[in-house]
Amino acid sequence: MGVIGRISTYYLFASSVFAVSIAKAQVKPHMLTVASIEEMQAVADSTVGIFITDKDRGGFFRYSTTDKYNNGTEFNAAGIGAGVWQRIYPNQDGLNVKWFGAKGDGVTNDATALQAGIQAAATARVPLVFPAGIYYLTENTVISLPSSAHLKGAGKKATVIQTSRGFSHDFPALVNVTGDNVTIQDMGFNGGRPRGDKDMSMAVAGRYALMNITFDAKPAKDILIERCSFADAFGRGILYKASQVVIRDCDFKRIGRYNIDFAAVDGAITNFGRLECSDVLIERNHFEYVGTHCISSYKVEGLKIRDNYLDHISGIGMANQQCSDVDVSGNNLNHTGDNGMDFQRCERIVINNNSFNNAGDKNAGNAGSAAAIFVGDDYGLAASSSTIISNNFVTGTYTPRSKTTSGSFQNCGFYIIDANHVKVTNNIIRYIGALPADKDAPVVLEDGNGIMVVNTQKGAGTDIVIEGNTLSNMKCNGIYVNGQSRELKIKNNYIDKFGLHGLLMCAIGTNLFSQVEGNTIVDGTNFYNRAVAADIYVEAQNAWITNFNISRNQLRNDSRGSYSSRNDTVFTTHGIYFSAKGFGKFNNLLVTDNQVNGHLVDEIGFSDNISEYSVTNENYFPLVSFKNNFSGSTDDQPDIIIPGLNQRNKPKVITESYGQQPPVYGNYSAGSVIRNISPQNDVYGWVAANSGFAAGSRWKGGIGYAAGQTVYINEDVYRCTVAGVSGKDGPVKKEEGLIADGGIKWEYMGNRVYFKKVLLRDLR
């Protein structure tokens, strides 16, 4: 209600006041009406009440003997020669900024009037009301909010404090908060930057910051900012050093240097570099076109970031360093250039029910991992601890069938580095990776992974659980693990349509006590056309991998031609694959009870250098068990999987299988057992007497052979790779490459394995 609209209310209030005071003095009261403050000041009679008709500064006044005046609620009584004319108003309604001479016309410099009103209202501990209008400040002015200041506007778009397009180094902020118990409601702040929504900022256009809360002073306490808007600052929106801070239901737009480099840490809300901050709540705010980092938090104890909407952030959506007791939930992040959320060396973090859409598309250039959620330490200084990441939804735009490029994508799902006690559960991550369809492009391990777990030489990850997640359509790997991990559990995840490996575990140090159990991994796309693209790929890289359990996983790659809507041709080469680079050993390895089917080469396979670095002088693969692993689709008879069946070289893995005769194909280690499923003549089964490859028959010239058939010549075994009719002399042993023989091409498979018959009576 404006001044004129409240005349009747003021009149009744003023009349009662005058009636009491005049009754005591037994003097007949009378009222004087004037048009302006100046006319009132000229009145010489202290016994009259005065009503001023000015629409902005008018109201009821009475004389007071006090000698303090502020030109808003008290004015110098020049006509009397002493005292003031004192405004009469309902205290609960607060003060009106226009009483102090503010115009709100967008042209007049209102700095002096605003400051006078702010000080008067704070002293009286009442709100300062801003009617609708644009309150203009020049570039060399700033307003300060002392303790108990309370600014209340007519709406975030209706009431705006607007600065000029000029810039002064002496006045970087538009508003300085210098005290405690400050409330700002229903108004806007504009930094004067003359740029469009998507344009880069100018470093000398308008204000650097819109609001600065107790910089280089003791932390403020009890700050409430709600239903406000902050726009067009070339650096930052709100900088704070405070505790008990609430920022809610506000809009932040065009804050910071969007879509350029990360030279300066700009952003909408930040306390970076300011200590002693605690109990901070940032909720239900809307952020759009912010650079570099939207919400930045540094060593905050008790941080809650809830239900915010972020769109087009050129850096990190939410950057948090060394914070504790953090709750980040219900937020929606779209198009961030770097990580959507970043938690560096934080403790006790809950991240749940957030939604990410292309939050990590590197819109400002090379931004590293550019993950939806980053947790840990990117600098090798210290580990992060105690984090729960659950029920989040992450999506990008990648699809392996796309032939187009796009500037928007989700580069990585979750990135966990040097972190301890982390639980990643029940998240949905899909369409991850950049879009260029160049299959010959080099693999960048930070591009296109659903979940990454990395441990550097300076840190170690302990007790990490990745469970119950759904990952679909990743350009590179579903889950990627690299480094020194202990107590790593990857359980009950669903991984579908990945470009390289469903699960890649690469140890550059000792990888201890890990479990991969109950996962379903299907339909890899082998986007990079690799010779090995596996559902589960395990690599020792100058490392021991020990106490490692891979069990109860379902790894399927069936073409299912009748299910045409899937259009899922098989590209994945192996179900489970073990590799080594440099020095590599596997020990205490259990691979049991897995169902693996439909892969191009082997259901379980090994690189050639496993045997070179893990087994020497006919020693068996140290303390491993490959047991009860089966292949076969719903239409096929299940078979026991022989690890490395189609390989020429493999570790000395002892296997057990079933058959009606000694094998005529496959790589077997000495001691492997084939049990007779139809015992006759007292035959229990057959045992491999040595390590080698099985052959069906002796080579003969002039015979037609089909691809896949094996033959032996003396102690050497060959496998037919190109069908045809054999020549006269037979293949000659060659370690590498194919061997021509008539119209056939053979591959040398190694020494011939011999099977010893075991009778039932031998077992009695």
Automatic annotation (TrEMBL):
Pfam family, one: Pect-lyase_RHGA_epim
SMART domains linked: PbH1
InterPro entries: Beta_helix, PbH1, Pectin_lyas_fold, Pectin_lyase_fold/virulence, RHGA/B-epi-like_pectate_lyase
Domain Right handed beta helix: 303-495
Residues annotated as domain Rhamnogalacturonase A/B/Epimerase-like pectate lyase: 96-171
SUPFAM superfamilies found in the cross-reference section: Pectin lyase-like
Protein name: Right handed beta helix region
Organism: Filimonas lacunae
